[in-house]
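INTERNAL AUDIT FORM
Audit reference: QA-55
Scope: verify that the stored structure record matches its stored sequence.
Auditor: D.O.
Record contents follow.
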Amino acid sequence: MSGHVIRPIPLFKAENVPPFLMTYMLGFLPPHDMGFYVWYIEGPEKKMLVDAGGKLESMALWFQFVAAGASGSVIQSLDQGLAKVGVKPEEIDTVILTQLHPDHVELASRFSNAKFIVQKKELDFALNPHPAAAPFYTKEHFEGLDFDIVDGDQEITDGVRVLLTPGHTAGGQSVAVDTDAGVAVITGFCCVRQNFEPPEMLAQMMPVLNPGMHINCLELYDSVMKVKETANIVVPLHEAEYIGKERV
């Protein structure tokens, strides 16, 4: 086991998010908060991030039409967050992109010396999206990046590997990291802790709750199960608990 450490770097947050966005067809659950992050993996020889981050202002339509009733606030800039783990954007060697939605890739151009690892299915779809998904992709955020394209599960470096976990997007990928406490998996789909830990009443019927934002509901359910079965530690991509933590 490589003993890597995952450092959450929260950039902004959303509060009072409607529950059905994270728990499909279960709108009776309480509203919740969400964090929007990049994740620094401490340990590999190369300086490595999961996701490139985005800007709160670019989520304005999401807050207005999708997450109506929610509010957002900036936590820190990308530079401020990276400085806390001792790196600058130009020093990052590798960025693993869980997906190509704006909040995960908008700031990619800041990482001028990085290779960007993306799933083939995700890039192909993002370059020619279905009309129903097109509003969630902005080509100028990712066109021209120095991509390292993978196809399926693959080891990136000793102790860090990607898992193909589609459903939220066409080719989302989760990131499995060997830590001293076991395998931690940063999910490649938008979810919170509740997706993996259903209330007792619901847990009797289903081991996970399908996230509410998806292009393929059945694929996404299988992806949630894949992460649950792989991970000793599940790191839900938008779980607010990591906003105040220095490490996973």
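Auditor finding: record pair retrieved intact. Residues 5-244 form a domain with the Metallo-beta-lactamase; Chain A fold (CATH 3.60.15.10).
Action required: none
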